[in-house]
Design brief:
This protein is mainly β and 287 residues long. It has two helices and 22 strands. It folds into two domains: 68 residues, no CATH class; 171 residues, no CATH class. Helix content is 7%, strand content 40%.
Length: 287
């Protein structure tokens, strides 16, 4: 009965004070919702909704929503929050081993904890990256004389060519950094790819030959593709300064090397791949 009265009180407060501050166990709330403890026991705090899987339908109205995933389904256990522009993101303790691992290698910023290996032949059908995951492609193969791999960006509805080749002697793409594909994005093409899925904590970026980094972000450039098979070498500039000249994903021979390590571009700076028709791939992190 006491619990029933408690729910009535909460409903009354929310109904009649929706435009004011609400206090529970306090008559002087210091925020829109202020819950004060009543004793030092295990019943203090807030328990979030516990789900086995992500909710099926999400809209901009659910931006900033947080849930707790139990680990009993296909999604890894932990706290997750929703951003409509990028999807589900896992909340990671900055002092945990998981977080330290995440920042250890800029090639794999989501870390390696709980990875799920993936091999898929795109000639048999497209591949959609699951919600809450990022896909790291580390190997590609195509036994045919020509091939390509295209990603359809779910947030922009634009397609980007991540791998292309038109040379009979070239069936093994050469790239040193992984190709990073974001959640809910769709891959198509003629390659067999191998890599892994991992919980998404960064936002993959696909962009054409020029990209200006948003405020309060850093862009980590991983790979690029140039649709022209005769020009597998690209000069890359940050602003007006040439910083490297490297092979692209469709380089044709062993003497053309792709970028060995990522490039780092600060907020407000513009990175340019000087070969027209090229596509760049990388990710954003907060400053």
């Amino acid at each position: 009965m006491e619990r029933q009265y408690f729910y009535y009180i909460i409903f009354f407060l929310l109904l009649h004070h929706s435009d004011a501050q609400v206090g529970i166990n306090t008559s002087n709330p210091a925020a829109a919702l202020h819950i004060n403890n009543i004793s030092d026991n295990e019943k203090n705090g807030i328990i979030l909704p516990q789900l086995d899987e992500f909710p099926v339908t999400m809209t901009a109205d659910q931006d900033s929503m947080m849930i707790y995933i139990t680990g009993n389904g296909s999604v890894n256990k932990g706290y997750w929050f929703y951003e409509h522009a990028s999807g589900w993101r896992k909340l990671i303790d900055s002092t945990s081993a998981e977080s330290l691992q995440m920042y250890r290698n800029p090639k794999f910023p989501d870390g390696m904890k709980g990875i799920q290996p993936v091999t898929h032949d795109l000639k048999t059908g497209g591949y959609s990256v699951p919600a809450g995951k990022n896909l790291y492609i580390t190997s590609l193969y195509n036994s045919r004389n020509i091939g390509n791999m295209i990603v359809l960006d779910n947030t922009t509805s634009l397609s980007f060519t991540l791998i292309s080749n038109t040379e009979a002697s070239y069936t093994f793409p050469t790239f040193n950094n992984p190709i990073l594909v974001g959640q809910n994005d769709l891959l198509g093409g003629t390659f067999v790819f191998n890599g892994f899925l991992v919980d998404a904590t960064v936002d993959p970026i696909y962009t054409f030959s020029s990209y200006t980094v948003p405020a309060n972000k850093i862009f980590i450039y991983l790979t690029s593709n140039n649709n022209s098979s005769s020009l597998p070498i690209a000069e890359i500039r940050i602003g007006a300064t040439a910083v490297t000249q490297s092979g692209t994903n469709n380089s044709r021979s062993g003497n053309v090397e792709a970028l060995a390590m990522p490039l780092f571009i600060d907020a407000g700076e513009t990175i340019n791949n000087m070969q027209s028709g090229s596509t760049m791939n990388g990710y954003l992190i907060d400053k």
